[in-house]
Amino acid sequence: MNASNVHEFSVSALDGGPMPLSQYVGRPLLIVNTASRCGFTPQYQGLERLWQTYGPRGLVVLGFPCNQFGAQEPGSADEIAVFCSTSYDVTFPMAAKIDVNGAGAAPLYRYLRAAAPEADGRTEIPWNFTKFLVDRQGRVVARYASADTPASLAAPIEALL
Known about the structure:
Elements: E1 10-12, E2 18-20, E3 29-34, H1 43-54, E4 60-65, H2 77-88, H3 107-115, E5 131-134, E6 140-144, H4 154-160
Parallel strand pairs: 3-4
Antiparallel strand pairs: 1-2, 3-5, 5-6
C-alpha cells in the first residue's frame, strides 16, 4: 500500500472489531506499541493521563500490543484488555496485537517506520512503547523513544491541538 497518511489504514480493535483510522481525521494521534510485562509498562498510566487531559480537545491515544520484544505481551486479547483495565484503568482505544517489525509487520507500522526513522536512519522499532505523534491530517510529525515519558510529550501535543 502506498499510503499518504495514517487515515488510509484500518486495523483490528482489541475486541476484534474494525478500527478504521479514517474515523480520526481531524484529530491528532499518539500511536504506541505496548506490552504488559515491560519495564516501561507503567507508561500506560501516563498515556491514560494524556488521553484524559487532551482527548476532550481532540487527541486520540492508540495502543498497539506487541509481543516482539522479550515476549513481554504474551496474553490473549481478553487478557490484555483485563490487564489494561484493572492495572492502569486504560480507556483509550486499543488495537489487536500486531507485529511492528519483520516480514509480518502491520502495514500501518511499516508506514510509520518509514515516515519517521530513528535519528541514525534505522526504521525498525527498537522496543516497546515507541511513540509516533501524528497531526490532524494524518502525517507523522515525530517519533519518540521508549524512554520518552508520556508527560514529556505534552508540549508537542499542545502544538497540534
